Amino acid sequence: MSLINSLHFMSVHSQLSLVDLFQQTDVVLFDWGNTLMLDFPHYSGKMYQWPYIELVAGVMPLLERLSDSHRLYVATNAQDSDKSEITAALERASIASFFTDIFCQRELGLTKTDNDYYPAIIRALACQPQQVMMIGDTIKTDIMPALQTGLFAILVNAGLSNVQADRFYHFATFDQLMAKLSPDSL
């Protein structure tokens, strides 16, 4: 995306309401660790093998809501797991059925900070960047690279309180995000 197109996109993006953003997009990418499922620091190895897993609070109602109107995908930087192992973790959490596919570092050969990570996903989806929303918990890997590619973005992270979110939406919780969406808005 050229600098002029990028600046125009950022200007348009900051003027759209949250409901408008969801109505404009067809695809929603979700980060995995600490966006969909809690990434416990005291566990190591593959999440599907952990003795305990847990969804991030409030994510299930959002998945249920968006699955009727959007194609949902996982876009993760996870290094320990491949697509089948991520699917196994999602199945343990009873959310695998919401997702059309999973884009992960092992499959793509790229990390989210690689300039071609999000463009590779856009090519695989055969769509335009402005049709895609990224939801994640990290500005550096989830939000900024997505915005630089032309995607819309939502940060969901309670630990970040002083976020300058003029180019993306920021919510502390999924419950806060859901409260901004009226029942018939999508």
Describe the structure.
The protein is an alpha/beta fold. The protein has one domain (3-179): HAD superfamily/HAD-like (Rossmann fold). Helices cover 37% and strands 16% of the residues. The chain contains 8 helices and 6 strands. The chain has helices at residues 3-15, 18-24, 59-66, 83-92, 105-108, 117-125, 139-149, 174-179; strands at 27-30, 71-76, 99-104, 132-136, 152-156, 169-171. α7 (139-149) links the parallel β4 (132-136) and β5 (152-156). It is globular, with a radius of gyration of 16 Å. The model is unreliable at 1-12 (pLDDT under 50). Pfam families: HAD_2 (PF13419).
Short description:
The chain is of the alpha/beta class.
Distinctive features:
186 residues, disordered N terminus, Rossmann fold, 37% helix, hydrolase, HAD-SF_hydro_IA, globular, six-stranded parallel β-sheet, HAD family hydrolase, magnesium, HAD-like_sf, alpha/beta
Q: In what order do the strands lie side by side in the largest sheet?
A: 3-2-1-4-5-6
Helix and strand succession? HHEHEHEHHEHEEH
Please name the CATH architecture: 3-Layer(aba) Sandwich
Q: Count every helix, treating DSSP H or I runs of 4 or more residues as helices.
A: 8
**What is the CATH homologous superfamily assignment?**
HAD superfamily/HAD-like
As a percent range, the share of strand residues is: 15-25%
For the largest beta-sheet, the strand count, sense and barrel status come to: 6 strands, parallel
The overall pLDDT average reads 88
Count of extended strands: 6
Unreliable segments of 5+ consecutive residues: 1-12
Q: What is the fold named in CATH at topology level?
A: Rossmann fold
How far is the first residue's CA from the last residue's CA? 28 Å
Structural class: alpha/beta
Shape category: globular
Organism: Neptunicella marina
InterPro entries: HAD-like_hydrolase (IPR051400), HAD-like_sf (IPR036412), HAD-SF_hydro_IA (IPR006439), HAD_2 (IPR041492), HAD_sf (IPR023214)
GO molecular function: hydrolase activity
Pfam family, one: HAD_2
